[in-house]
Structures are given as C-alpha cells and as structure tokens.
Automatic annotation (TrEMBL):
It comes from the Bacteria. SUPFAM superfamilies: alpha/beta-Hydrolases (SSF53474). This is Acetyl xylan esterase. GO terms for molecular function: carboxylic ester hydrolase activity. It comes from Cellulomonas flavigena (strain ATCC 482 / DSM 20109 / BCRC 11376 / JCM 18109 / NBRC 3775 / NCIMB 8073 / NRS 134). Residues 1-328 form the Acetyl xylan esterase domain. GO terms for biological process: polysaccharide metabolic process. Substrate binds at Y95. The active site is at S191 (nucleophile), D277 (charge relay system), H312 (charge relay system).
Amino acid sequence: MALFDLPLPELERYLPELDEPADLDEFWAATLAETRAFDLDVRRAPHDSPLTLVDVEDLTFAGFGGHPIKAWVTRPAGSATDGSSLPAVVEFLGYGGGRGRPLERLAWAAAGYVHLLMDTRGQGSHWGSGGDTADPAPGSGPQVSGFLTRGILDPAEHFYRRVFTDGVRAVEAVRALPGVDPARVAVTGGSQGGGMTLAVAGLVPDLAAVMPDVPFLCHVPRAIAITDAEPYHEVVRYLSVNRERKAAVMRTLSYLDGVHLARRATAPTLFSVALRDPICPPSTVFAAYNHYGALADQRPDRAIEVYEFNEHEGGGGFQLDAQLRWLAGVLAR
C-alpha cells in the first residue's frame, strides 16, 4: 500500500472540527448507571494449563445488561495468594477475534502484570482461536454483514454501546481481583481493541495508562470518506441502499467515535499509527491523538510511535516492546 493520506507534518497538526452530540456525557452516564444496577458478579475458575510460571483463570463478569462476559486472566504464578499488589493490564481484541487460548498472550504476565484479556461479545470466528461470549441483545433492524451497522439507527441499540460498556466493566472486574493494585490499571488493544481502549479511557477517569494501537472507530466521517477497506466500508454499503438514513447513521456513530471519547481521557497515553494503513487511516488515528485529553483539567502526557512503512499490522513486536518499556516508566513515576 502506498502512502495515501496526509503527509506526516500535516498529520501531526491535524485537529479536525468535531460534530460531537450535546448529550454525549449524559448518554454514557445513563448507560453505565443502567449497567451498574447489575451486580458485577465476578466468577473465577482455575484453568487447567500446562504453563508453570503463570497462573491462568477463566473469568466471567457481568457486562452490559448483566450479560456474562468471558475473559482470561494470566498472572505470575502464586501472585494471587502471596500478598502481592501487582499492576494490571486490560486488553481488548481486534475486529472479529475472540479470546482464543490463554497461552497465546503471555507477555504481560511474563513482565509481572496481571493481564485480563476480554472476549468480545458476539465475535470470535473471523480469525484466531475462537471466542466464548454471546451477544444476547442484538440491535434491531436490517444490517450489513459484520458489526458496525448492528443497531446503526439508534445509539441506544448499537453493538458498540454494549461492547464499550463491557470494557468499562472489565476494568472494574480486574480491580476486584486479589493481588491487583486498583490504582495501577492500564488498558490496551489494537484496531477494534484500540478503539475500545480509547472509549474506556474516556469513560473511566482514574486509569494509570492508555495504550491504543492503530485504533479503529476514530473520526468515522473521514474514515468512511477516504477508505474502501472493511469494516468502515460496511457503513458505505449500508448507506448505498439506505440512502435516506445518513443523518440517523452519522448521529449514532457520533456517540461511539473514539475521538469524542478520547477528549475526555485523563491518563497518559502511548499511541501507535501506521502511515500505509488502509483499514484505520493515519489521519483518523492522529485526529484521536491530537484531541486526546483535551477536556481534562490537566492535559495528560501523550506519545505516539509512527510506523512509516507498515500497513494495519503496525509495529507488531516492536510496538509491544515499546509498550512494555513505556508502561514500566509511567508506573515508576
């Protein structure tokens, strides 16, 4: 993929005007209050694992609507009962993937963190090793195949209202676990997981750190204008048939846009962006990065890793190494 978006100097200054709904904060406050009426209901079950240096638990907690959400929790062996108070990292997954097998993601536990990997409701069969969480409350109305147009005519019905709320509850669940320092919880994820990371950063005011990689669901109006790649193209296909519904569609997506939620974040952040990424175009990522924390009483520290020659894979292992080093520094401060 050739370079197709703005030049890097323009990206670094890119600060688009936003069409943020006036009742965004009220919408999300009501959503979270509705969900918190349900008990968090954290259930832990040991997982029979051949691993000896980490402990693995099969975790279930109540997400949006009280629906059961699955997660893997991995941590240094014995740390749940030895009096440790470890920092935690909550990780969200990319579009269509599920939590897979716990031995597939060991870096955070190996680095001394409690790691919660949240399954994404209704997903898990597009790539990877599968998922285990149903979505018992699908949005109403016709949709394009995929998830981006599920409940697209009403923000209260949209798939990502449920998923973002699940992400907030995942932070609450990890804070309820033994051996976790609730003041040192970070969130991370790539692509869809990066968009979820930004949403949770805007909805949880006391995170220690935020690490979105090549995030999806940012500056959605521009994304659907400049890329033909999925998943954004799901919206284009929907509107190519439902021409009269553009206003309703864009209104719904404005409640879910990572740029709008990122403005409310308060924790330090490390982003990544790939300049040849056709799935999450660079300008959409920089829109979120440049607006990040703008509404905070004190603007949080920001940093971004730029991968000039990469597409949606971004930095891969290089970015994970950067995250491990960056987060250790943040927590040391």
